[in-house]
């Protein structure tokens, strides 16, 4: 079976060589306008009409129009612009598939969240600030403000690949873990809850980790009403998408102490303007959307695709299938 594979992403020399070797004897089309991996290619469609498979970030509307397209793999965990009834039905009606690459980013995102949970508990960000600003030796405040993650309660907003990996990483700390999901199916080591249980569980959480995707339903979902349910001093983390949080409400919660600390890897907008008040909000720490980062990202994306290509050729289930 010979297939035509279209890719609008540049993965670098080594990963591209692996992609070319792994897709032989199929035909591989990489348009001249292809962009560096990790970014959309601004509507590139050259050659897409010839493709059986699209890899990268193809325009969603173009995918719907291509009757020969049988499978789309996006090189990201998020897929908001594809998550529409038109796109889903457009693929389903012709028996086509869509996969994302969430398993490539699950481990780095989960480790990033765990790193900040531990760092906040062990007073690392404020101690680093002391070192840079005034070299103060604030022994009493830092030592007796330190907390243990052991035995604390963690609430995960969303339960996909990142959440599952974070649950695994939290096991040695014997945390009590709740996870919010529309369908509260049982999961080992996790108390699954539905939206109707959220008001009851929010006051129990020492840590709230937001992993929600961006869509119309989740816009501003973490709002003033929900933040007000937290116990004073609870910590909030956003590894999902910036649009899912009412940032003005979060600012007020930080200023009042209702939220004891916030760690944000994503914001709205991105990049966050230098004058935005979140930069100087009390106990608010930011990183520039790097939670999913890993040095071998491009090779990992290529290997993910090649593993799925082998499954596709053998008519086997695809990894990280979303349609």
Question: Topology, pairings included?
Answer:
Blueprint: E1 4-7, E2 9-10, H1 13-23, E3 27-29, E4 35-36, E5 53-56, H2 60-65, E6 71-74, H3 85-92, E7 97-99, H4 102-121, H5 124-133, H6 139-143, E8 153-157, H7 161-170, E9 176-180, E10 191-193, H8 198-201, E11 207-210, H9 224-227, E12 234-238, H10 247-256, E13 259-264, E14 284-286, H11 297-313
Parallel strand pairs: 1-3, 1-5, 2-4, 5-6, 6-7, 8-9, 8-11, 9-10, 11-12, 12-13, 13-14
Task: Explain how this protein is built.
With 323 residues, this protein is an alpha/beta fold. The chain has two domains: 4-100 and 295-313, NAD(P)-binding Rossmann-like Domain (Rossmann fold, 3-Layer(aba) Sandwich); 106-286, 3-Layer(aba) Sandwich (Rossmann fold). The protein contains eleven helices and 14 strands. It has helices at 13-23, 60-65, 85-92, 102-121, 124-133, 139-143, 161-170, 198-201, 224-227, 247-256, 297-313; strands at 4-7, 9-10, 27-29, 35-36, 53-56, 71-74, 97-99, 153-157, 176-180, 191-193, 207-210, 234-238, 259-264, 284-286. The strands form three sheets. The chain has a seven-stranded parallel β-sheet with strand order 10-9-8-11-12-13-14. Strand 5 (53-56), helix 2 (60-65) and strand 6 (71-74) form a beta-alpha-beta unit. Helix 1 (13-23) runs parallel beside helix 11 (297-313) and helix 4 (102-121) packs across helix 7 (161-170). The chain starts with a strand and ends in a 10-residue tail after the last helix. 37% of the residues are buried. The model has no long low-confidence stretch (mean pLDDT 95).
């Amino acid at each position: 079976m010979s297939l035509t594979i279209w890719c609008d992403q540049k993965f670098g020399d080594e990963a591209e060589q692996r992609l070319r070797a792994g897709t032989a004897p199929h035909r591989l089309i990489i348009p001249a306008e292809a962009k560096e991996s990790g970014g959309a290619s601004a509507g590139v469609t050259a050659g897409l009409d010839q493709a059986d498979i699209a890899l990268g970030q193809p325009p969603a509307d173009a995918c719907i129009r291509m009757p020969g397209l049988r499978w789309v793999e996006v090189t990201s965990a998020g897929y908001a612009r594809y998550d529409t009834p038109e796109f889903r039905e457009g693929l389903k009606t012709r028996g086509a598939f869509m996969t994302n690459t969430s398993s490539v980013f699950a481990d780095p995102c989960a480790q990033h969240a765990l790193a900040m949970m531990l760092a906040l508990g062990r007073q690392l960000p404020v101690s680093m600030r002391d070192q840079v600003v005034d070299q103060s030796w604030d022994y009493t405040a830092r030592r007796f403000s330190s907390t243990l993650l052991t035995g604390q309660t963690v609430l995960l907003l969303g339960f996909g690949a990142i959440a599952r990996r974070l649950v695994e990483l939290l096991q040695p700390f014997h945390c009590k873990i709740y996870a919010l999901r529309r369908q509260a199916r049982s999961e080992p080591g996790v108390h699954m809850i539905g939206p109707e249980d959220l008001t009851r569980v929010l006051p129990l959480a020492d840590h709230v980790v937001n992993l929600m995707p961006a869509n119309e339903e989740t816009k501003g979902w973490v709002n003033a009403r929900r933040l007000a349910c937290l116990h004073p001093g609870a910590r909030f983390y956003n590894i999902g998408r910036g649009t899912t949080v009412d940032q003005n409400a979060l600012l007020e919660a930080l200023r009042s102490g209702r939220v004891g600390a916030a760690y944000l890897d994503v914001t709205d907008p991105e990049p966050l303007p230098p004058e935005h008040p979140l930069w100087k909000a009390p106990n608010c720490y930011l990183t520039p959307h790097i939670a999913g980062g890993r040095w071998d990202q491009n090779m990992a994306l290529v290997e993910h695709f090649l593993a799925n290509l082998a499954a596709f050729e053998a008519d086997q289930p695809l990894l990280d299938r979303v349609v």
